[in-house]
Structure to design on (798 residues):
């Protein structure tokens, strides 16, 4: 370890001590609860009963909208760098059978997580992650397209999350409720619709990201 | 009931979705989205001028539970500037990109535009984090669009450094939430008291943002990234993206941290800004390549912006308004001027096939409109009258003397001198003998291109705004700022 | 309370480890791992803040922030990896 490294470590240790003290102080002093009570009290007004989903898809839906845009930006950026890397060799027998067993289970679990996210831990991102994992497994077992649709369908799927979200928000704004304001009567269904679109988009994005480039079918 | 604030963010998002789904139509949809978004931004500006500080509680939940969008004089002016510059860049990009890159440029560009608008209107510290990430990813991807080794390396570094900054900022947000229990700027400002919490959260949040704003010595990532990107992207990066990060530093400083941390940090920021002015101007002068010169000039200009911090800290309330006005004017002028400079540079590079300053003479002389635009942009960058920068620097100078802090004035003067040096070095080629465009001189390098008339317009327009409009219209800015929070 | 402090302190240590690694190591992959470790550290702190004792439901806001943060970190890592890939392949 060079002197420079040691100096860096020393500085960071000092900063760490300061941070630790501030954290300890803040956690101990501040009235426990912060925004928790406020959020938990208003969960019934959000249309779902899982508090985290309520925060993500209703109270702070704007953050989630931008976050889906971040995902979209990443995959668009990845596509802009060029064609995808060559795929793997077709899988041997064992891997093939395992894949055939696991991928459908993953898809089922994704659907389950999406549905259960309304009232228990789960939701669009978790479901999307499982779909993405299924795509990665498909790619690893020799399918160069990772199970993704080709041509225009892939592009549509990628943009589906942001599209559904923005469309819902704009329609609600035009209808007089306000941008991203979900009236209680329809909140649950709007949230479910957005989450379903987002699940597909997230799954497709994560799987497509694993290709590290634009798959041949997408370019027209 | 139209929520103009939300529309400035939602319209480019929608546009980005459409051009990503239908790449064949990207220029048309992209330009249309740009026009609509700019209209929304101008409406926000009108709202501010009439009704004060428009605020939009998204989802109807209100703070502290939900997220709010907020505009005031400061953010509104920057919002309008950013949208107008972005519109100009879009018009330029219509003619600049060949069909291959075009379909990658537009969706990312609209996402960048959306993130800029979201950033200027943000009133929630975590929301700021998400907009910063969107901005960083879109910007890095756009910067690497040409696909060359140097471009990818420079923009990868930009992405990594940006992530370091965002993560640091996020830790600051976490600590802030731990201590204050809110993520809303306004509420946090009300609860924040002087003490270790303010210092730590401030250091983390501002530190992360300073990395993104390219304050010396954290500027090292900027020149290669901006110089290697395609011209419209460089314009956006220098004029808008860096400005956005600076805006956040200013906003957090004024609203949140300045009341509780005293003048020390302000002086540090000013000192680092001074370093940026000197170092940036020096490297700009020594640059062999036009886009590198422009990129280093951005480092210098950012330094100027930070020079105002110690003055702000030391000034009494009425003077603060004036200083803030000068700061805003400087930021606005630089936005237009730098965009004009980069767009002109792009056209010269296309025409000559390279951007080596020493050999650009013939190209400059054969594109008089572009040369004029570059000259005007240079005038605004140096700060000659009647540009907005002149008024801003004048205020900076008089205030530093009035407050007995003449050393800041000295930095401004030295910086201005050096800026004149590198601008004149650039323009001296425009005044040579009549252009004798040998095939040898022009045709030697990579393919050169004929430059159409339409594409020269945006650069010229922006340079004109920087020099004429902002200079003559500066008075109205003060009125606009009157509605900004003290 | 002790749990909270443990998680928070671990988060801070992870964050600093990540910063150190980012600044000290050259290879792209190590820098990316460092960034993700930094992220994990911040998420630890947020999860710690959300804890309100065994009887009460935790604060959902920091949990939502962590979810958003994870997605953002993954996106950025994906882009950085792809850009790194292009750099490596151009050398060939």
């Amino acid at each position: 370890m060079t002197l420079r490294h040691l100096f860096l470590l020393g500085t960071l240790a000092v900063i760490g001590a300061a941070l630790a003290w501030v954290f300890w102080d803040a956690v101990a002093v501040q009235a426990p609860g912060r925004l928790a009570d406020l959020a938990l009290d208003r969960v019934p007004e959000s249309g779902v009963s899982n508090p985290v989903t309520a925060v993500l898809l209703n109270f702070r839906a704007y953050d989630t909208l931008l976050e889906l845009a971040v995902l979209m930006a990443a995959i668009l950026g990845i596509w802009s760098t060029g064609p995808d890397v060559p795929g793997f060799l077709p899988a041997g027998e064992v891997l093939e059978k395992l894949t055939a067993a696991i991928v459908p289970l993953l898809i089922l679990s994704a659907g389950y997580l999406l549905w259960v996210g309304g009232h228990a831990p789960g939701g669009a991102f978790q479901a999307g992650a499982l779909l993405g994992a299924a795509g990665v497994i498909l790619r690893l077992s020799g399918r160069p397209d990772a199970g993704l649709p080709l041509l225009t369908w892939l592009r549509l799927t990628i943009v589906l999350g942001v599209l559904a979200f923005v469309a819902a928000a704009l329609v609600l704004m035009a209808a007089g409720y306000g941008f991203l304001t979900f009236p209680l009567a329809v909140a649950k269904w709007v949230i479910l619709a957005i989450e379903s679109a987002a699940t597909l988009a997230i799954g497709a994005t994560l799987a497509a990201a694993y290709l590290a480039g634009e798959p041949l079918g997408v370019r027209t | 009931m139209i929520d103009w604030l939300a529309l400035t963010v939602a319209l480019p998002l929608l546009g980005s979705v459409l051009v990503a789904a239908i790449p064949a139509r990207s220029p048309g949809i992209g330009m249309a989205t740009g026009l609509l978004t700019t209209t929304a931004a101008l409406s926000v500006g009108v709202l501010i001028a009439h009704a004060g500080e428009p605020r939009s509680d998204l989802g109807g939940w209100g703070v502290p539970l939900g997220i709010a969008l907020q505009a005031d004089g400061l953010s509104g002016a920057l919002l309008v500037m950013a949208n107008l510059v972005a519109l100009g860049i879009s018009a330029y990009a219509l003619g600049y990109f060949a069909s291959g890159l075009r379909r990658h440029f537009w969706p990312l560009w609209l996402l960048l535009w959306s993130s800029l608008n979201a950033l200027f209107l943000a009133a929630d510290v975590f929301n700021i984090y998400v907009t910063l990430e969107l901005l960083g990813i879109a910007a890095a991807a756009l910067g690497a669009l040409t696909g060359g080794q140097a471009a990818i390396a420079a923009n990868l570094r930009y992405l990594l450094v940006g992530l370091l900054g965002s993560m640091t900022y996020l830790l600051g947000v976490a600590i802030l939430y731990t201590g204050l229990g809110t993520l809303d700027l306004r509420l946090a400002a009300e609860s924040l008291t002087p003490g270790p919490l303010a210092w730590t959260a401030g250091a983390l949040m501002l530190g992360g943002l300073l990395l993104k704003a390219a304050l010396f010595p954290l500027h090292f990532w900027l020149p290669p990234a901006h110089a290697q990107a395609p011209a419209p992207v460089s314009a956006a990066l220098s004029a808008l993206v860096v400005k956005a990060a600076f805006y956040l530093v200013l906003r957090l400083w004024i609203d949140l941290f300045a009341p509780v941390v005293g003048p020390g940090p302000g002086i540090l920021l000013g000192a680092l800004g001074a370093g940026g002015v000197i170092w940036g101007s020096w490297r700009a002068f020594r640059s062999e390549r036009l886009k590198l010169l422009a990129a280093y000039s951005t480092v210098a200009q950012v330094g100027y912006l930070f020079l105002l911090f110690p003055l702000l800290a030391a000034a009494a309330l009425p003077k603060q308004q004036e200083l803030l006005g000068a700061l805003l004017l400087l930021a606005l002028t630089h936005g237009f001027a730098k965009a004009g400079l980069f767009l002109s540079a792009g056209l010269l590079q296309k025409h000559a096939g390279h951007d080596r300053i020493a050999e650009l003479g013939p190209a400059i002389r054969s594109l008089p409109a572009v040369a004029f635009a570059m000259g005007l942009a240079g005038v605004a960058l140096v700060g000659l009258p009647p540009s907005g920068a002149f008024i801003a620097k004048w205020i900076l100078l008089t205030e530093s003397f009035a407050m007995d802090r003449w050393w800041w004035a000295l930095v401004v003067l030295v910086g201005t001198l050096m800026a004149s040096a590198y601008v004149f070095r650039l323009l001296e080629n425009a005044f040579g003998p009549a252009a004798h465009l040998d095939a040898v001189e022009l045709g030697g390098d990579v393919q050169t291109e004929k430059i159409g008339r339409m594409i020269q317009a945006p650069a010229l327009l922006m340079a004109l705004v920087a020099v004429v409009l902002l200079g003559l219209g500066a008075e109205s800015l003060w009125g606009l700022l009157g509605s900004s929070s003290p | 309370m002790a749990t909270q402090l443990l998680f928070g302190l671990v988060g801070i240590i992870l964050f600093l480890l990540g910063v150190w690694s980012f600044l000290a190591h050259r290879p792209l992959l190590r820098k990316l791992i460092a960034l993700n470790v930094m992220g994990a550290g911040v998420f630890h702190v947020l999860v710690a803040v959300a804890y309100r004792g065994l009887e009460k439901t935790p604060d959902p806001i920091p949990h939502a922030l962590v979810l958003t943060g994870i997605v953002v970190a993954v996106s950025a890592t994906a882009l950085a990896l792809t850009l790194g890939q292009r750099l490596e392949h151009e050398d060939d």
